[in-house]
Design brief:
Layout (H helix, E strand, L loop, with lengths): L1 E6 L14 E3 L20 H6 L22 E6 L9 E2 L2 E2 L5 E4 L2 E4 L5 H22 L5 H16 L3 H4 L5 H18 L6 H25 L6 H5 L17 H4 L2 H12 L3 H7 L5
Length: about 280
């Protein structure tokens, strides 16, 4: 259940999903019962809201439908939107799932990497058993390190460039604990996951800059005109396009332009690499 604070005669509306039910807590300590709530009971959330203390400064708005005085604060309770509409392709309805495995990565409907790190933790922990068993045979450190790199570290560092920067600290700390355990088994200090992710990210940055230069040199490329329009009139640098969301800001074009301008952008980079912005 969401809470929306409005002033004066402002109204909160939701265009997607089911039309919400809005109720206002008034200065007479009354709460209008929303449509559909025909059996009030102590367990009803709307009944519990009636018991809330009236502590907003300047008083609260009247019942649902009262505009109130201009500038007078009010509290609006918006009911649930209802289940989202199913996705359809043509006449076929797609089944909605919470998690999905694609190219070795676990994606979830919340667009975070908690499910992926959980699966990595389970898979790495199961392979740690073989590392400990190999250590019980008094194998030398070099062979243990080779086994760790090929069997254990390959699982932890798979596609770390994609999920390493967006994973939570709690998930990363769990994976770092596994690396410290493996370090005690192998008998030498192993590289932490953050170091591996940083080194691989640097390699990706070099590839992104090279890809941007190839796009600028290829007139037939679909993104050539887009990047050409971002050219600065004063210098040979590229201007960042405007974006409102972090997802758009982390896409290819803004990220490539940012890397190009910060590291090897400008006239000096163009003379060194022979790249032109014409």
């Amino acid at each position: 259940m969401g809470v929306l604070v409005v002033r004066g005669d402002a109204r909160g509306t939701l265009e997607q999903g089911t039309k919400p039910t809005i109720a206002h807590i008034g200065p007479r300590d009354e709460l209008a019962t929303p449509p559909g709530c025909t059996h009030p009971s102590p367990a009803c959330p709307w009944d519990r809201l009636r018991a809330l203390p009236m502590t907003l400064k300047g008083g609260l708005k009247g019942q649902a439908g009262d505009k109130g005085a201009p500038g007078e604060p009010g509290l609006s309770i918006i009911g649930p939107r209802g289940p989202p509409k199913p996705v359809q392709i043509g006449t076929e309805e797609l089944e909605g799932v919470q998690t999905y495995k694609y190219l070795g990565l676990w994606l979830d409907n919340r667009l975070d990497w908690t499910s992926n790190t959980r699966q990595l933790y389970k898979k790495t922990q199961s392979r740690m058993y073989f590392l400990r068993r190999l250590r019980s045979f008094n194998i030398c450190r070099k062979l243990l390190w080779m086994f760790y790199q090929s069997v254990v570290a390959s699982i932890l560092s798979y596609a770390v460039v994609c999920w390493g920067g967006s994973a939570t600290k709690a998930d990363l700390s769990r994976l770092e604990k596994l690396i410290r355990r493996a370090s005690s088994v192998v008998g030498m200090k192993l590289k932490p996951l953050a170091t591996v992710a940083e080194r691989r990210t640097i390699r990706v940055r070099v590839r992104v800059r090279n890809k941007l230069r190839s796009i600028m040199d290829n007139v037939r490329h679909p993104l050539h005109t887009v990047i050409h329009s971002q050219r600065s009139l004063i210098s040979q640098r590229l201007r960042l396009p405007r974006f409102r969301t972090n997802r758009l800001g982390n896409s290819f074009i803004p990220r490539a332009i940012r890397l190009f301008s910060s590291s090897q952008g400008g006239r000096r980079a163009n003379r060194r690499t022979g790249t032109t912005l014409q």
